[in-house]
Structures are given as structure tokens and as C-alpha cells.
Amino acid sequence: MGVVKASAVTASDVVPFPEAAPTQPRLRIEDVRLEYTTRGKTVVAIDNISIDVPDNEFAVIVGPSGCGKSSLLYLVAGLNEPTSGEILLGDKEVHGPGPDRGMVFQSYTLFPWLTVRENVEFGLKRRGMPAAEREEIVNRYLNETGLAAFHDAYPKQLSGGMMQRVAIARALANDPKILLMDEPFGALDSQTRSSMQRLLLRVWEQHHKTVLFVTHDIDEAILLGDRIYVMTARPGRLKEEVVVPIARPRSLDMVMDPAFIAVKRRILDLLKNEIKDDDEH
Ligand SMILES: Nc1ncnc2c1ncn2[C@@H]1O[C@H](COP(=O)(O)OP(=O)(O)OP(=O)(O)O)[C@@H](O)[C@H]1O
């Protein structure tokens, strides 16, 4: 084969590398502002927040009480519309709720007339998934969340922790693009809360589902999160994005690690300043 001289190669001969599709983060919150108007009085709850949540990351929102954390999650869930700005999931703008977003709230939101199995199965059945496929998926999530032995129980027979397991299993079974969790362990006693954190760590490390998680608990935020968005006092703005430099798999005893303590100190400082700023106004 002859040698191709460099001079023989023209621009039109060069086959460009296929451009890698730019990887858009799954969730983009762009310049979102939210005002509530009640009886003629307008309150700015969220003031121009922009956040990109990378795919397959566990993102956590922390901030002073009333800074708009739940409001932001509700906007992503499509349960409310921003006053301005937009929210994109993939390349679709969010308007209204949809099966691409799974929600787990602090209050228990199971259907009381359905068993554990039927609760987990609900969304799949609604989508018309065949029974055999449904059963396989439901069994998998019942096992993963330690609910297999309780599959025939009704919500009223379960403790708060068990009900939240069902809510998590139900959300995951629907295979949403993102899981939105609003203080899901906020109503649980501290022991149950720890056990739920362990469970969520284990389940999340298996699926790496994109999560947006709201909490007041800084230890919980660091333990679970890859990235923590710290908000200012109301009107909520993004104060700082803190990346958690702690390897996975994680365990609850990591709260004693120097890296954990350093991140905690950083977040507490950010929040302390925020509350002080707020008091001074
Ligand atoms: N439906 C509503 N109508 C009017 N004001 C509202 C409404 N929902 C929330 N607010 C106000 O908006 C602000 C943000 O509320 P939000 O519940 O989102 O904050 P949060 O950070 O989740 O609070 P917390 O940490 O206490 O749960 C608060 O001042 C709240 O009183």
C-alpha cells in the first residue's frame, strides 16, 4: 500500500469523529422563581435558583426552615408551576406530575385499602403491565426493602418506618427517571431513621437512580448525598453547592471520618451565617 502524503489529505477527506452528544443533566432547574400570593399578599419563596442535578447522582437540598426546599421539590414534581424560569427533565419541560418522577413524602401516602403488594404494584398495573412481569418487579422491590414477609399486610398494620419502605419500593418499582424525596424520614424515631438511611444507602447503591432529597438533618445529607445544595434563608437562593468527597459504599459509622466532619463543618458554617444574616435583617 502506498504512503499517503500529508499534502494529499484535504479538509473534505477528513472524517470528523462523531460528536459525543453533550450529556445534559437529567434535571435542570433554570432561573426558577416562585411567588405565593395569599389574600393579596405576595411572598417570594424561591428567588432565581438554577441547579443541574447530574444523572445517577444523589443530590440533597438543605437550608434554613422556610427557605423553599419543599416548594422547589413540588415544582420538580409538577405539583406547582414556577412564577418564572423553567424545569427540564431530560429535554422535556416539566408541566404537571408524571410517572417519570417518583415521590416519597414525609407524611405517609399509601393507599390504606390496598395491601403492601398492591400498593407497590399500583403504578405498574395502571400502566397495563402483564401480571407475570408485575409480580417479578414487585417481588424484587419487596425483597430489597425487607418487606417480603409483610406483602399481605395493610398500611394500618405497619409502623412508620415500614410504611416508608413501601413508599420507597412503590416509587422504585415504577422506574422513574428521578426520585424526589421530601424529608422522608422526618417523622421517624432516630433508630428507625438510621435503619432507613442504611436501607436507602443499600438500595441506592444498587440502582444509582437520580435522587433529589430534602432534609433538615446535615448528617443525613452528607451520609446519603453526592452533592449538597445549601440554600439561603427565604427567599431561597442557592448559597453553595458542596460536593461530598466520601467514597461509596457508605456506612453510618462514617460520621466519625475526618472527611465527613470537614464537610459537616462547612455546611454548618454556611447555615450558621445564613441564620445570622436572617436575624440581622
Ligand atoms: N401554599 C403556600 N401558600 C403561601 N405560602 C406558602 C405556601 N407554601 C409554602 N409557603 C411559604 O413559602 C416559604 C417556603 O416554604 P417551604 O415549605 O417550601 O419551605 P421549607 O424550606 O421546605 O420549610 P421547612 O424546612 O420548614 O419544611 C415559607 O415561607 C412558607 O410559609
TrEMBL record:
Residues 27-258 form the ABC transporter domain. Keywords: ATP-binding, Nucleotide-binding, Transport. InterPro entries: AAA+_ATPase (IPR003593), ABC_transporter-like_ATP-bd (IPR003439), ABC_transporter-like_CS (IPR017871), ABC_transporter_ATP-bind (IPR050166), P-loop_NTPase (IPR027417). Coiled coil: none annotated. It holds the Pfam family ABC_tran. It comes from the Bacteria. One of its GO terms (molecular function) is ATP binding. SUPFAM superfamilies: P-loop containing nucleoside triphosphate hydrolases. Belongs to the ABC transporter superfamily. This is ABC transporter ATP-binding protein. It comes from Ancylobacter pratisalsi.
